[in-house]
Amino acid sequence: MDNRFVFWIDTINTWVGKAFGWCIVLLTAATSYEVFARYVLQAPTEWAFDAAYILYGTLFMMAGAYTLARNGHVRGDWLYRNWQPRTQARWDLILYFVFFFPGIITLLYTGWEYAAHSWSMKERSLFTPAGPIIYPFKTIIPIAGALLILQGIAEVMRCMYCIKTGKWPPRLGDVEELEQILQKEHAAEETGR
Questions:
Q1: How confident is the model at residue 87 (pLDDT cuts 50, 70, 90)?
Q2: Number of neighbouring beta carbons within 10 Å of residue 173
Q3: Residues paired with residue 124 on neighbouring β-strands, in sequence order
Q4: Is 159 exposed, middle or buried (0-12, 13-18, 19+ CB in 10 A)?
Q5: What angle do CA 94, 97, 101 make, to 5 degrees?
Q6: What is the pTM of this model?
Q7: Which neighbouring-strand residues pair with 133?
């Protein structure tokens, strides 16, 4: 396996995930201002609802590939963690081709059509009187799908490497799961006894 290619994909999705992670700061600021304006100034904004769902939706969609790169998506860990790495990799590989790729390809295809339709009519929000443009934000759907497919390719390469060698290849490390930290601490305590 060429780690450089896999790390390149991880790096792209890490950068995108961290960049769009700032949406949470904007979302918090917009929501806080709306609460202040509504309850203190008695003058609710016309734009806060649109800002909230646009920012949250963008954050949610663009965090998917980053989370996959960090192996952070939820799975049946109570069963999975007791398997040998090769068994884990075989099941992951099967599930990527049976569920992940068909679902994400569908997201990409329908998201592309959805975004194209939105751009063709220069769609605006109907939820509030401000009616901000929303067609640029609908473009996030196919972009997120493309990034997920790219990360899925990296994960398939990791699975094939693990099936071949019996151990998982390294990941870029900027986050470590609490469960992994606790397992390391428990193992250190066991060896210290």
A1: very high
A2: 7
A3: 133
A4: buried
A5: 145
A6: 0.82
A7: 124
